Amino acid sequence: MPALDRPHPAVPLHPTRRRVLAGLAAGAGLAVAGGPLAGRGAAWAQSDIVFERGRVSIVTHDGRRYPFTVEIARTRAQRARGLMYRREMAADHGMLFDFDGVRPRAFWMKNTYIPLDILFLEADGRIWSIASDTTPLSEDNIVADGPIRAALELKAGTCRLLGIEPGDDVRHPMFGDPPQE
Questions:
Q1: Could you tell me if 53 and 72 are in contact, meaning their C-beta atoms sit under 8 angstroms apart?
Q2: Closest Cα to residue 132, out of 102, 162, 111?
Q3: How far apart, in whole angstroms, are the C-alpha atoms of residue 136 and residue 118?
Q4: 6-16 burial string, b = 16+ CB within 10 Å, else e?
Q5: CA–CA distance, 95 with 71 (Å, rounded to integer)
Q6: Which DSSP state fits 114?
Q7: In what order do the strands lie in the sheet with 142-155?
Q8: pLDDT in tens, 60-112
Q9: pLDDT of 140 higher than 50
Q10: Which is it for the CA torsion 23, 39, 75, 53, positive or negative?
Q11: Residue 126 class from Cβ within 10 Å (0-12 exposed, 13-18 middle, 19+ buried)?
């Protein structure tokens, strides 16, 4: 019989240690069973993340301008949360991710129920690439290998419908543009 399978003799605990361990176990059980997260999912646990709202405009290569209301994900917690757990989003809304640095980026759709178009943006707001019609709940990496400063998530099909393409511009103060009205 392997050593790990042998029965071990019971080691008696000092009465004080026994009370301390029992108290810790009971406290841990109450924290898990009746604590603030009891019976609630991950969506509730992250619901205290608040996003700043703003406006962006997408200007296509032929001069058409499309305004969107966006939530802005600036902090690590906001970027990690993104649009997770949401079941709907208005057609003229989106989420703008501010990475505060330029490098290749990757996203996934874990816990994201809305199919999206993800626009990967350069430091000046120019669209580097678009991941169209992403698959909800997928854990596959969606990678942009270019000099990515930000990303804009819109409802899937928006880019196709409006003719938005790589090379078009996203306007927002993050990219040095005046505030959008």
A1: yes
A2: 162
A3: 12
A4: eeeeeeeeeee
A5: 5
A6: S
A7: 127-131, 116-121, 142-155, 93-107, 65-73, 52-59, 169-171
A8: 999 999 999 999 999 999 999 999 999 999 999 999 999 989 999 999 999 99
A9: yes
A10: negative
A11: middle
Spell out the residues 6+ positions from residue 1 whose beta carbon is closer than 8 angstroms to its own: none
Q: Which amino acid is at 150?
A: A
Tokens 């930000």 correspond to 150
Compute the distance between CA of residue 55 and CA of residue 2 in angstroms, rounded to an integer.
Answer: 65
Report the SS3 class of residue 34: helix
Could you tell me which of 79, 58, 180, 175 has the C-alpha nearest to residue 124? 175
The CATH H-level superfamily of 44-175 is: Protein of unknown function DUF192 (2.60.120.1140)
State which amino acid sits at residue 37. Answer: L
pLDDT at 173: 96
Both tokens assigned to 4: 């790990």
